[in-house]
Amino acid sequence: MDASEARRFVVLDFYRFVAALGVFIFHLKLIDTGISPAWNGSYGLFVDMFFILSGFVISYSYPSDARGVAAYSRFMIRRIARIYPLHLLSLLIFVVLIGAGLERTARSTSLDFVYNLLLLQAWGVTDHLSFNSPSWSISAEFFCYLIFPLLMLLARKVQPVVLGVIVAALYLLLAHGHLPIWQERSQMYGANFDYGMLRALPSFLNGILLAILFRMSHPYRHKRMIVAGIGLFGLSVLVLNVFAKPDLAIVLFSCAILLTAVGESAFKEFPGARLLGRLGNTSYAIYMLHDAILIAVFKPLWTWLGLRPDQFGLYALACCAVLTIVADRTYAYFENPARRLINRWADAAAPSSRKIPAAAAAETSMRFDNPERAVN
């Protein structure tokens, strides 16, 4: 990819922020059995949108001339620098919560700790969630990172229409086939510890396909496309709130991401980019820390205040605000500095002949997946 094309898609960043809060509300609603069914949306499916966005951003930002072991090693170091520090922090937080008797998952063993430490907990090696349960999706993403060169090789060898057929076939097989790893059809959309890495695979490859289509869209990029993209994203949120239709949600997510990227690329700078970017920066910490804060703070506070189910809306709004502030500070003082430190160590340790020039390593900064923001 030409480094001059590298950009940050701040509207897609904002989608990720909304989706991270959606996953939080999906878990927060469990604090009281009397909470209205109106809150029982299938917001857990936002995780599948994360996988699509990851495939889109990483493949879009990956240098087209990157080949060989050195390029793959640099890619993996940057991916680990991106996801691992906060994963490790959240894992240790749950160790403390377990020690304090607050952790709600009783089946967190020493072997589970090893699986989580190695990011293997979504690979079918266990029969339960453990420690920071949302981190299963980070394990699934890690699997996609490991096989990323193979996915890119496939994407470069076949025509986009053929890749589209492969993506559709993967969704059909994994989501609706009678596979022995899952007991029911469509169980893929609920998979986490039970081969959740296979749940990530079609969506991650779908994101790679969308990046290819985005590159092909250059003659058609217009600012008005952003309206269609935002509208489709809003429709996808409505679908998740009212209907549990995962296949429809995947289609809407995909169209919203592509149209939004196409429309946003027509702006030299999108209005409100700084605010949207900052909110986007909080998305990973919101996702990774929300369960610990829910267990340690939000759930006990709900009980202590004696709140009623009909007050859940205002309570959820307040919790979202608090969680966003915590995530913002976590990004500023831990997540981003840790990523930069690891990348500096890796650059300093790499032989000069194997270092990738800065221009070749330029990447977009969709925060949830980008190893290093071009704007930083």
From TrEMBL:
UniProt KW keywords: Acyltransferase, Membrane, Transferase, Transmembrane, Transmembrane helix
Record's keyword annotation contains Transferase: yes
One GO location term (cellular component): membrane
Single annotated GO MF: acyltransferase activity, transferring groups other than amino-acyl groups
A Gene Ontology BP annotation from the UniProt entry: polysaccharide biosynthetic process
Domain Acyltransferase: 12-325
Entries under InterPro entries matching the protein: Acyl_transf_3_dom, Acyltransferase_3
PANTHER family (UniProt xref): ACETYLTRANSFERASE (PTHR23028), BLR2367 PROTEIN (PTHR23028:SF131)
Name recorded for this polypeptide: Acyltransferase
Protein's organism: Bradyrhizobium nitroreducens
Lineage, opening ranks: Bacteria, Pseudomonadati, Pseudomonadota, Alphaproteobacteria, Hyphomicrobiales
